[in-house]
Design brief:
Capsular biosynthesis protein; 11 strands; TIM Barrel; binds fe (ii) ion; 6-stranded parallel beta sheet; alpha/beta
Length: 236
């Protein structure tokens, strides 16, 4: 009798091979992410061993974490990392009462994009206007982890996508780490072809290790690998 593994671990897949992580909280001590330089270096070492090529550090800028771009830049430049992963600094900008486009535009993602998020529970009253203002300023808004917003329905995703808002896949969502609703939304968005960027949203050693140890159906793993391959080809 033969037994076939229907699920495989992320750590045993080629998922992160040559991967560019566009969203993670590895800048230590500035938000709810990694707290110490040692843990940042540990995660970067784990990422390198699994093939990650490039990482965008995207600390929160929000009411609870009112980081200034200048301070984040200074801390980023002080990070004692001399490994092979290419590191860059951007930020995850919360659309809240404190959102300031002039400040946010000092920390874009990949030069011409702006990574933004909202509350998980309620849309900000000025969401559409803010997204429009970002576009008018010449930056492309990237909505972080759209699968996690409990107030969004399929028609909301469709409308935002039609407005040219870029959706960023949090890969761990597809392992069920954020619960079944976010997992289902992430699968739906992936199947619709709505994602154009990907990240791990890593917050800690435990978080990243949990992601590596999690299992996914082989079919889903192949689907994500195909999506990531397309991204690589688009990015040249
Ligand atoms: Fe995040």
């Amino acid at each position: 009798m033969f037994f076939f593994k229907s699920k495989i671990k992320v750590s045993e897949s080629a998922l992160l091979n040559d991967f560019t992580d566009c969203h993670c909280h590895l800048l230590p001590g500035v938000d709810d992410g990694v707290k110490t330089v040692e843990n940042t270096l540990r995660i970067l070492d784990m990422m390198h061993r699994h093939g990650v090529r490039e990482v965008w550090l995207t600390p929160h800028i929000m009411e609870e974490h009112p980081n200034s771009p200048e301070d984040l830049q200074h801390r980023f430049e002080s990070l004692p990392y001399d490994g092979p992963i290419q590191l860059h600094l951007a930020a995850e900008h919360m659309i809240d009462r404190e959102f300031c486009l002039e400040r946010a535009s000092k920390l874009p993602l990949q030069g011409d994009k702006l990574l933004v998020e909202t509350s998980y529970f309620n849309p900000p009253i000025n969401m559409k206007e803010t997204l429009r203002d970002i576009k008018v300023s010449g930056l492309h808004p990237v909505l972080a982890h759209p699968c996690r917003y409990q107030y969004m329905e399929p028609e909301d995703y469709e409308e935002l996508h039609s407005l040219g808002i870029i959706f960023q896949l949090n890969i761990p969502a597809l392992t069920g780490i954020y619960g079944p609703a976010a997992e289902k939304n992430a699968q739906w968005l992936l199947d619709k072809g709505y994602y154009s960027l990907a990240g791990t949203d890593t917050h800690s050693v435990t978080h990243f290790r949990h992601f590596l140890d999690s299992k996914m159906p082989k079919k889903l793993m192949r689907k994500i690998e195909r999506f990531l391959e397309e991204l690589k080809q688009q990015q040249g």
